[in-house]
Amino acid sequence: MYQFTDFEHHSQLVDDNEFFAQYLSPDYPWRYDSNFFLLKFQPDLQEFKLIEEMQIASHRQNKLGHLKFYWPQNTPLTPSVTKYLDKEDYGLELLDLYRLKPGNFKDQVSNLPVKNQVLSSKKLGAFKSFNYQHDQHVSKAFAQSKLSFYDDLLAKPGIDFLTSQLDQEIIASLIQIEKDRTIEIDDLYVHPNYRHQKIASTLVNQVADYAKSQDKDLILLADGEDSVGAMYTKLGFSQTGSLIGASKKLGL
C-alpha cells in the first residue's frame, strides 16, 4: 500500500524523528503543501502544542507565513486537539489516497471531440493562462507564484503537463509525475463549462495508458470532502487511506 510519503511534495525532508517528519522548501516558501510537519503519532493537546511551538520557531526562522500539519494516515484528531484547532483558527482538510493498477482502468470517454496531448515548453503560456483563473480562487498572490512554479516543474525530468483541447482551446489539464514505481496525477482541473462531460476521465485515460506501458501504478490525492472521489472509483481506482491536515497563516 502506498503512503503519503510516496507522493511528490516538491520539498526536502529536513528532519525525521520519532514524532514527526519535517518537509521544507526554500524555493517555494508560499506553498503550504511543500512546507509542513507529518506527524507520526496521535498527539494529545499538550503534545501538539509542543510540536506546534517547534514549527512556529522553524517557520519563522525560514520566513514562512503559515503553519501546516498532517496527521498519520487513518488517524482521527482527539476532541481536545479539534477544539484547540478551531479556537486557533486552523483550517482543516481531508485527503483521500487513491491507487490504480492500470489494467483495472475502466474507460469513461467523452463524446466531445477533445484532443489530449503532452504539453511542450512552447505552449506553456497557454497552460499558465488556463490555470491562472483557477489558481486565483486561492489568491492572486498564489496564482502569481505558481507561474514560475510551472516553469520549474516543466524543466524537471519525469514531470509532464497534459492538456485536453477543444477547437484548439485548453479545457482541462493535469500534471503527471513519474517515479520508479508510480505515476502520480496532480492538479487535475477541468474548466467549469465542460464538467460532467467525462473530460477528466478522458484525460486520465491517457495517463493510465502510459502507466500500463511502463508497468507502473497510478496514484493520486483527492479532496475527501469533494464528490470527485466517486469519479475515481468509477474509473477503477481504489481508496487506500486518508489523512487529516490542519493549516493557518502565521504572523512573522
Automatic annotation (TrEMBL):
Domain N-acetyltransferase: 117-252
PROSITE patterns in UniProt: GNAT
Listed Pfam families: Acetyltransf_1 (PF00583), DUF5613 (PF18467)
Source superkingdom: Bacteria
UniProt xrefs under SUPFAM superfamilies: Acyl-CoA N-acyltransferases (Nat)
Entries under InterPro entries matching the protein: Acyl_CoA_acyltransferase, DUF5613, GNAT_dom
GO molecular function list: acyltransferase activity, transferring groups other than amino-acyl groups
Protein name: N-acetyltransferase domain-containing protein
Natural source organism: Alloiococcus otitis ATCC 51267
